[in-house]
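Hi there. Long-time user, first ticket. I'm pasting a complex I've been working with (about 686 residues overall). I'd like to know whether the download I got is complete or cut off, because the file seemed smaller than I expected. Thanks.
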Amino acid sequence: MLKINNLQASIEEKEILKGINLDIKPGEIHAIMGPNGSGKSTLASVLAGRADYEVTGGTVEFMGKDLLELSPEDRAKEGLFLAFQYPVEIPGVSTTNFIKSAVNEKRKYLGLEPLDAAQFLRNMKEKMKLVEIDQSLLSRSLNEGFSGGEKKRNEIFQMAMLEPKLAILDETDSGLDIDALRIVANGVNQLRTKDNAFLVVTHYQRLLDYIVPDFVHVLYKGRIVRSGTKELAKELEVKGYDFIKAEVDQELA
Amino acid sequence: MMDATNILKEAFDKQNGAGGNLAEYQQENWNMFSGLGLPAIKHEEWKYTRIRNVFTDKLVINNDNNLSKDALEKLILKGTENANRIVFINGRFDATLSNTTDSAEALCIKPLEAAAGDEDANFVNINLGHSQRYHGDGINALNAAFANGGVYIRVNKGVSLDNPIIIYHISDSSQGLRFSQPRILVNIQEAAQVELIETYINLGGGETLTNEVVEISAEKDAVLHYVKLQHEGEKTNYAGTTHIRQTGKCLTHAVTVTLSGAIVRNNLNMVMEAEHGESHMYGLYLLKGNTLADNHTIVDNAMPHCFSNELYKGIMDDASTGVFNGKIFVRKDAQKTNAYQSNKNILVGENASANTKPQLEILADDVKCSHGCTIGKLDEDALFYLRARGISAENARSMLLHAFAIDIIEQIKNEEIKAYAEQLVAERLSFNI
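Hi, the file is complete. Here it is re-exported in full:
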């Protein structure tokens, strides 16, 4: 589904990703962990197509297409979804209208008829339950005045509505209390199928108690320096990142 | 190119020679205009706005009027068939095309010249030309020199009008650069409530130049909702003043929407002469091409405990220019004034520009005044967020600009006019959700 090969990217001439290799297949959940500043969020942003980052080398193939050639909107329409670490507040744009136009632009891209109002509403009601989000929230301006937890639930709600093939969760757990974390994770688990995949970017192991990954990768200084199963995350939880940093710094020295 | 002096002189002599109730007033103003001339860009208040350059020997000034009632019906805004309708043709009030739907006990609409000689003469004497205290320039005096073509509106004490008053300014540009000078004097008596809407229509596809003065006095407990809607195309030049006096504690609310034009200059004054007055001023200028829209506002707080709120927003595409100048005066006795002002601009076009200048003169020491202005591009983070959900860059821009603009339109109280303005804004921004 997603094949990242030797991906390098920089921002303002500063190299952040220094050769990432990653292969994600349908049905898999991958977790990317790593200390602050290791490049985790950069990887998520580069995959979604944020223009601040310059890709300086490597390739990314998504569903057989050259992902890096696609505009951010076409990536989304091809089935990529980024749950933002900091969802943007957009005054004046109603959440419902926004999601409706996102859903219908995607359907148009895929050659499908737009959903009529009734279908859309039915769909929405069903997905709202999934993330325990309230109707009143959706009639408000997009993320405006939402609490941290509400913003993150809104991200997962949008994910549910857009039914992506690959969802990247960028530090979705940051700023969440345990109840909100459980709701978000529960939503993700219910959306999981054998055909879709998740890339969960997180600093802490905590989220992985709820969203159990098939693979865990540790990102450090712009490279994946360790890969393993969920046991690796457990080990990190106990030992912290320092032991990996020490090992890697020694290897690089 | 010759300037317009001779043409203006000829037109003035022709109409003032006929005498009438306003002849003396007009002569005084003609003399004033002759002394002052038209404002040039070296005039601080006009530094961005080259309106003088439009006053050439190409001006067409005459009272030709071929508009039939049937032709007028086609120009009437949908859903406003019941409105009180005031029609100006080429800057002259046309009583036969105008129509009053509220009762004669509620509302009186008549030629300004008639009002200057009947039971309303006292009001006219006091209020006609009141705006010159704030705009003592030649262009205001020039309008006054032709005041006899104006209209007088009185909303009687205690009346809440059933229907809005819509003023249609129709300019026939088929003979060339049409020059129109509408003059409007409005008397809103105690506890009367009125929605007053002005809109402009250019017939003929040529150039127009309009120089307008509207003077409104609102008494104690009156409520005024005023809207100016400018969207008559790229060949329209406009300079106008709307001057609103609060002579008693009342509420006055104005929304100015500018969607097109060549040079457009709007002066809006709120003169708060009574304690506990409340005023609101909203503006949207949504510009493209080479349009220059210049909004100058004044809030003059003369008495204590007044509240004013002002929000102007601009979106400039292509090589258009937005100008905002907001003055707030708080006089020595106007303690406990609350005055807020904000001007926000988004530059979309490569060659677009915005100039914004708040001017606060505060002589009282116990007041709350705030002002702020921004000039920037569309928020890149918001744009990316929308695109990351599959919304095209184009639609994402539309959505964001629409969201920015529409909260000004939502301030329009009259539902039909609001719906019409919403439609115009949505069309302009290709917004179709």
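A couple of notes from our side: The first strand of chain A starts at residue 2 and ends at 11. Residues 95-109 of chain A form the longest helix (15 residues).
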